[in-house]
Automatic annotation (TrEMBL):
Protein name: 40S ribosomal protein S3
Pfam family, any one: KH_2
Signal peptide, first to last residue: none
Ranges of residues in domain KH type-2: 23-94
GO biological process: translation
Gene Ontology molecular functions: RNA binding; structural constituent of ribosome
UniProtKB keywords: Ribonucleoprotein, Ribosomal protein, RNA-binding
SUPFAM superfamilies the UniProt entry points to: Prokaryotic type KH domain (KH-domain type II), Ribosomal protein S3 C-terminal domain
Low complexity biased stretches: 237-253, 261-270
GO CC entries: cytosolic small ribosomal subunit; nucleus
Lineage: Eukaryota, Fungi, Dikarya, Ascomycota, Pezizomycotina
Species assigned in the record: Orbilia brochopaga
Disordered as annotated region, ranges: 234-270
Transferase among keywords: no
Family label: Belongs to the universal ribosomal protein uS3 family.
Length: 270
C-alpha cells in the first residue's frame, strides 16, 4: 500500500480493496465494544488519513489519546508506512439508529448478556423505527431454545429487495454471537428514507415515487370592454323610436252582415 513502485490501475484497485478489507476486519475485532460502525480511508500525496466511525469515540481515543496512538503504530508497522505518513481519527456516528452495524453490535451484546431473543429484537426494531427509518428487518438464526436450529425474522415498515435502490437505500450488517449452546447469526437491514441534505439517507427518491404537482392558481378572466379594442365609447346614442300606438281590438272587429229583406208577394189581379 505504501510502496512507491509503479503499478497498473487494476493492481492498484485490487491492492486498495485488500487494504480496506483487512483494515475493516481488524477494527471490527478490536473495536467491537466501542461501537465500531465503519472506516474511511483518504489518501493524499503526503499522508494517509484513516477515519474510524464509532458510537463511543472517547473509548476509541483512550486515556490522553493513548489507544489511538497504539493503533496508529500498529497499522504503520503492518502495512510498512513511512514515519508520520499515516494518521488515525475517530468520528462519532451521527444517527446510530440508522446504522446497521451499530444496531447489530447492540443486539449482539444484548444476547451475550442473556436477554431473550424476542425481547432484544423487538427493542432494536422499535429503536430503529423511532430514529426515522422507513423499514427494518432483523433475522436471528441458530439454536435459539431447542436443540434444532431455526430462524426468527422480525420486520417493520417498508422494505425493498431488488434493483439499484437496494444499494442506495439499504444498510445491512451481519454478526455472529458465540453462546454456550452454539453460534447465532444476526442480520440487520435498515431502509433509510430520502434526505435532501444527504445525512439521514440518500439525496434522491425512489424510482417509483409519484409526485403530484398542484396546479397554479389562475387569475379570473374579465369581460372585454370597448377600451380593450381601442374603440371610443359612444355616449350620444338616440333612443329607439317608439312604435305607434296600436289600435284597439274593437276597431278590427267587423260588424255582422245585415239580413236581406224578405221578398214581397204581388197580388194577382185575377
Amino acid at each position: 500500500m505504501a510502496s512507491t513502485t509503479t503499478i497498473s490501475k487494476r493492481r492498484k484497485a485490487v491492492a486498495d480493496g485488500v487494504f480496506y478489507a483487512e483494515l475493516n476486519e481488524f477494527f471490527t475485532r478490536e473495536l467491537a465494544e466501542e461501537g465500531y460502525s465503519g472506516v474511511e480511508v483518504r489518501v493524499t500525496p503526503t499522508v494517509t488519513d484513516i477515519i474510524i466511525r464509532a458510537t463511543h469515540t472517547q473509548e476509541v481515543l483512550g486515556e490522553q489519546g493513548r489507544r489511538i496512538r497504539e493503533l496508529t503504530s500498529l497499522i504503520q508497522k503492518r502495512f510498512k508506512f513511512p514515519e508520520n505518513s499515516v494518521s488515525l481519527y475517530a468520528a462519532k456516528v451521527q444517527n446510530r439508529g440508522l446504522c446497521a452495524v451499530a444496531q447489530c453490535e447492540s443486539l449482539r451484546y444484548k444476547l451475550l448478556n442473556g436477554l431473550a431473543v424476542r425481547r432484544a429484537c423487538y427493542g432494536v426494531l422499535r429503536f430503529i423505527m423511532e430514529s426515522g427509518a422507513k423499514g427494518c428487518e432483523v433475522v436471528v438464526s441458530g439454536k435459539l431454545r431447542a436443540a434444532r436450529a431455526k430462524s426468527m425474522k422480525f420486520t417493520d415498515g417498508f422494505m425493498i429487495h431488488s434493483g439499484q435502490p437496494v444499494r442506495d437505500f439499504i444498510d445491512s450488517a451481519t454478526r455472529h454471537v458465540l453462546l454456550r449452546q452454539g453460534v447465532l447469526g444476526i442480520k440487520v437491514k435498515i431502509m433509510r428514507g430520502s434526505d435532501p441534505d444527504g445525512k439521514a439517507g440518500p439525496n434522491k427518491s425512489l424510482p417509483d415515487t409519484v409526485t403530484i404537482i398542484e396546479p397554479k392558481e389562475e387569475q379570473p378572466v374579465l369581460a372585454p370592454n370597448s377600451q380593450d379594442y381601442g374603440a371610443k365609447a359612444i355616449t350620444n346614442i338616440a333612443p329607439p323610436a317608439q312604435e305607434e300606438a296600436a289600435a284597439p281590438i274593437e276597431a278590427y272587429e267587423q260588424p255582422p252582415p245585415a239580413a236581406s229583406p224578405a221578398p214581397q208577394q204581388q197580388e194577382s189581379s185575377w
